[in-house]
Structure prediction request, 566 residues.
Amino acid sequence: MSIPFILFFICAAAAVLGAVLLIVAREPIHSALALILVMMSLAVLYLLLGAEFIAAVQVIVYAGAVMVLFVFVIMLLNAGVEVRTNYSKIAKYVGVPLGFFLLLEVAYWMWGSAVGTTVANGAGAVNADAVSTVDLSNLLFRDYLFPFEATSILVLIAIVGALVLAKKGE
Amino acid sequence: MDFIAQHAVLVVSLAKIAVLLFVVMTALAYVTWFERKVVAHIQSRWGPYYVGAHGLLQPLADGLKFLFKEDVTPPAADRLMYVLAPFLALSLALTTLALIPFGPPSVQLFGQPVFIVANSSIGLLFLFAITSIGVYGVALAGWSSNSKYPLLGGLRSSAQMISYEVSLTLSVVGVLLLAGSFSFNGIIEHQYGSIRHWHVWPQIIGFLCYITAAIAETNRVPFDLPEAETELVAGFHTEYSSFKFAMFFMAEYANMITVSCLATILFFGGWLSPFPDSWKWQLYLPGAGLVLLGLYCAYDTAVHMRGIARIQFAVVTLLCFAGGLICLAPSVMQVIQGPFWFVTKVIGFLFVYVWIRGTLPRFRYDQLMSFGWKLLLPVSLVNLVATALVILLRHG
Prediction:
């Protein structure tokens, strides 16, 4: 039992716990915090796989920027406790077993796959220079420059669109 | 010994964390003393004077007072979040210090660098990652108190921190372009040589943007809107008392120290000396400085101190002399150089912080926002583009 191996299980459990809390919590702020927990645990998992850059960016962008805005909006609107409707019967009797089945399926495929074996052996962990930041930027800004720029233009269009929609009321 | 050899990383890291925590907690206490003293002298007062010689035991007294105060939780508060917020604020503020190199990586113990806890190749990114979630401590404190002033303070502070984080990050990218590295040691080694090679000269605009945004990020005067007492009582920590309040207090000072460390590393050569290597006399500076301080303390003890303060200050004098002599020992002299310059520069930045607090009035909220978005952000963007252009033209 190496330390990265133990860390993996702690963070995996935290991620799942956070995801469940996110749905179960009735106070919107608690849900938001649970989502932050999920993102932070995912960041640690990336780190364990040797993807330092992705881990840091995950925290900066998701936990540090997106979720701060979420929390900010929830605080600003002073959103109250969620009102629960009666659960849909289909979700309860069909959705839950189907979800469970999906989990089993994923577990089955992970069992034999290369990724699953590496993670189980803890060998994928702590391989700091597996993908260095320099490699990553070379990929992004040389090999995949066009898709990268296309994505950024798409995001820009989304921002402009949001502004236009928000302005409509005036 | 076998165990230590096998788990060198773990054992040495734990030891480093323990020492760092002890040093930082003490430093935090004395930064408050330093601030009160400096602000007092700016305002022609004496500051803390009676608890210990020159008020040197005041931080200890304050800490004990915080411990023994009644810990009040408002009945309408969200209990879990209310308790979580100060822990979050303080632990995140302290975590960042693990990434800071206080001395050169060449000084090693069991094959591990002594002066840095986590020697990451993307230290700067990790530091920004940790500081970017630091805002939750303040925001949650404001929300969970379930009271109007804290809520307003928390809201203001989240808005302010999001706004200034953009400029803070952008102002640093220029340095990254120059150094071509995310690692703190890489950035520092790029400034090797003398004071002429420090990044502050080519990045003077970046530095000014950084220091402005950093003061706003740490919620200090003139950007201390989240706790503007004339409008918001005490802002986000209005409802906090006892040690929970002390934790916010410590987090604020820890953040000040982190920001000063970062400014030192990025723009002022970190643990590098400002003089070229060939000037050998600089090796004697740490010891000589301490001995001079000791001489001043001895004079003060003999002439100004009376009663118990005299004994206390005599002890301080002896400590200064002992420290100075140890620093002059040949084997220690080399090791102490890095931390000496680092700490000196950080104290310089802390002084600037306090100086600004002592001189400038607070911004109005709309001024704060338009300053951040309409001036600071464009200037740091232009600085970034200009830096990139110059590097491109020089190196092709």
About this structure: Residues 58-272+368-395 of chain B form one domain.
